[in-house]
Amino acid sequence: MDDRHQEVWLDQLPSLSREFFERHHRPLVIVSYAQSLDGSIATRNREPLRLSCNQAMVLTHRIRAASDAIVIGINTLVVDNPQLTVRLIEGTNPQPIVLDSKLRIPLRARLLERTDHRCWVACVDRSDPERIRVVESRGAEVIRCNGDLLGRVALPHLLHQLGERGIRSIMVEGGSQVITSFFEARLVDQVIITIAPRLVGGLTVLSRHVVGDGSQLHLNPASYQSCGSDVILWGRPQWQTQ
Length: 242
Ligand SMILES: NC(=O)c1ccc[n+]([C@@H]2O[C@H](COP(=O)([O-])OP(=O)(O)OC[C@H]3O[C@@H](n4cnc5c(N)ncnc54)[C@H](OP(=O)(O)O)[C@@H]3O)[C@@H](O)[C@H]2O)c1
What we know:
Largest sheet: 9 strands, mixed
CATH superfamily: Dihydrofolate Reductase, subunit A
Bound molecules: NADP nicotinamide-adenine-dinucleotide phosphate
Strand content: 25-35%
Radius of gyration: 17 Å
Number of helices: 6
């Protein structure tokens, strides 16, 4: 993987992720989000915040198009009601996936109206069969996963099931709890952050402490480039002991 040439890396992602799957038996995970200089990804009240400039939004859509699937948490769906398409570029829309342990998804969500992909909604195994039926009757496909210690979707089991469905790469777009869980589970292979030159004082990207035992997460090597008025920072995460 040549981290210094992101455009090339994105073009090669389909073949890289196939090789990755052969070796690791799970999809390659890219965490990609936009933050302010102080690490905010939304307002303090979790209201949506447009952080990326237009050029950086185009890059985000390129990352989406290069990925087989895109993952968001149910809070992001409720707050932003996103479409998760690549409408700013020519390319293929990734498979949308929502982590929604208790099937709280609003039945009028825009993702349920997509005609190109049925939205995949990952819930926990013990979910109410009637609620599963209702959500599926709105066009979604429900994926039942083991629960983690907090009763939410267990990420290793989710990735295993996505692999069985042919998914070789996923882009994790947010929000903060979902990104935190992927870091905590050490299931992140590439990080691509859009940094907007602003201070916001809002909801920070990590919702809890994910490092312990004196270890820290480094992007190594870290690369960066300017993109319109923003800076894109990317690299492979590595846990290092201080
Ligand atoms: N700047 C950006 O790039 C960007 C991108 C995306 C979102 N956002 C912002 O992020 C905010 C939402 O973030 P958030 O932290 O409140 O929520 P979130 O991460 O979008 O969703 C969290 C919810 O997902 C469900 N979930 C299921 N399995 C999970 C797991 N293994 N780990 C974590 N969550 C799991 C949980 O609800 P259940 O227990 O009910 O399943 C959890 O409460 C919004 O304000 C949105 O605008 C910003």
